[in-house]
């Protein structure tokens, strides 16, 4: 009987030991969330306008995104000069970043093949900006037009691409 009492006691101690180990283990539950943003749209609302230019010996005309204008060389720039304007629609209060062309693009004379180079693109606001609480935003784009000496008279036109993405 003593042996069975000892075995019962050893069994009770072992069971208590296993019960303590089982109580030491615990679990927790984590939560995962995700927000799907609205698709971004960007729409051109105004063209980049360099006005009228008297080429003389050539130079550059810069129309900055903040509407400031500058020129170099012996050319004269006059008339309506304004940056291009774009509207953006996306998710409310989201941050977006604007990507501009890194290489120059050509403007080609409407009734000919002559070109002028447009580069040095800049934007206002510069880089990234936040959409408003309705998901709307806007930015402007400027650049520098290189006009050759004796540039053939006429209207020159061309396109450039901008893109926006969530930051």
Question: What's the quaternary structure here?
Answer: single chain
* Helix/strand order, N-terminal first: HEEEEEEEEEEEEE
Give the end-to-end Cα distance, rounded to a whole number of Å. Answer: 79 Å
Radius of gyration: 34 Å
The SS-based structural class is mainly beta
Major sheet size, sense and barrel closure: 8 strands, antiparallel
Q: Total number of β-strand segments?
A: 13
Average of per-residue pLDDT values? 89
From the spread of the alpha carbons, the general shape counts as elongated
Number of helices: 1
Point out poorly predicted stretches: 1-5
Any idea of the CATH topology? Immunoglobulin-like
Q: How many structural domains can be distinguished in the coordinates? A: 1
User: Which CATH architecture is right?
Assistant: Sandwich
Strand content of the residues, in percent? 35-45%
CATH class: Mainly Beta
């Amino acid at each position: 009987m003593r042996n069975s009492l000892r075995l019962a006691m050893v069994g009770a101690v072992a069971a208590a030991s296993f019960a303590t180990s089982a109580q030491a283990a615990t679990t927790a539950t984590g939560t995962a969330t995700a927000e799907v943003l609205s698709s971004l749209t960007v729409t051109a609302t105004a063209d980049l306008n360099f006005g009228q230019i008297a080429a003389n010996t050539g130079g550059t005309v810069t129309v900055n995104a903040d509407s400031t204008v500058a020129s170099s060389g012996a050319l004269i720039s006059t008339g309506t000069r304004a940056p291009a304007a774009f509207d953006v629609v996306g998710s409310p209060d989201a941050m977006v970043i604007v990507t501009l062309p890194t290489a120059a693009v050509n403007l080609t004379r409407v009734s000919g093949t002559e070109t002028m180079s447009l580069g040095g693109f800049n934007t206002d606001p510069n880089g990234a900006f936040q959409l408003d609480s309705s998901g709307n935003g806007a930015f402007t784009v400027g650049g520098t037009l290189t006009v050759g000496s004796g540039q053939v008279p006429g209207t020159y036109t061309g396109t450039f691409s901008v893109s926006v993405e969530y930051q």
